[in-house]
Amino acid sequence: MNQFDPDKFKQEQKARWNQGARSTWTLWKETQVEDTPAKFFLELVPVRPGVKVLDLACGSGETSLQVAQLISSHLTTDSKDAKIVCVDISDEMLRVLNQRAQERGLSDIVETCCEDAEKVDFGPHYFDMVMSQFGVMFLPHLPEDLANIRKMMRPGSLFCCVIWGEEKDCHIFYAARSVVNPPPPPPGTPVSYGTKDKVMQALRKAEFSDVKAVEFQVVHETKDAEEYITLMSGVNKWLEKSLGEKGSELWQKLVEYCNSNYRTSRGTLQFPNVCVGITAVA
What we know:
282 residues, 7-stranded mixed β-sheet, methyltransferase activity
């Protein structure tokens, strides 16, 4: 079996995010019944003059913009340098974010940076809060990367992230994997699910303190199985390749599985998922 190549992994991630920057991730947000991850972050933002927040692996920035709006609503004449810095490896994702920031009148607060999260450096003690939604689990060298992030944070400031729970509890992914077995990744590849203990241990190793975790639910709802397949094929290219053409035997098998296990009384499909919110003090 091939060994994990972190540089190749990151390039593949960048290509995938670039390709689905608008269609896939717009649909992802549209199918999310309630934005509980955003609520988790918004309750933690230290709203004060000159506050600086880092959103690591921000994607198309829907949560970043909600944080920016919160900061903007508390701006005063002595807090003009307040901002949220949004970092992502995908330039297409950031292009979408910048356009949305401009449309919402938040360009003065939102700063974007197209960079590998492992190479970000804004100098010591710069940020009052660092957040990351579904991004930390993809860092190839987690303890070292978190240690570098801590150096950029003011002493006593808050690190917070949201990650997925166990795969069996994340039905938006589990449904497809129950029908289509994905190819095994090379040893050492970062995984998306069940990394709570790994992330918490890495934070402690990086000398963060008061590391805590809380679980909450995120529900995705699609109008039918076809919309679900469209969404997940955009997220997972192995699924698109495995299913083949619409109407194939495997495609139909996944449709039947979704209809049997996730159909609501309204005829839509609902996929409940467990997420974990983690906080730690720099």
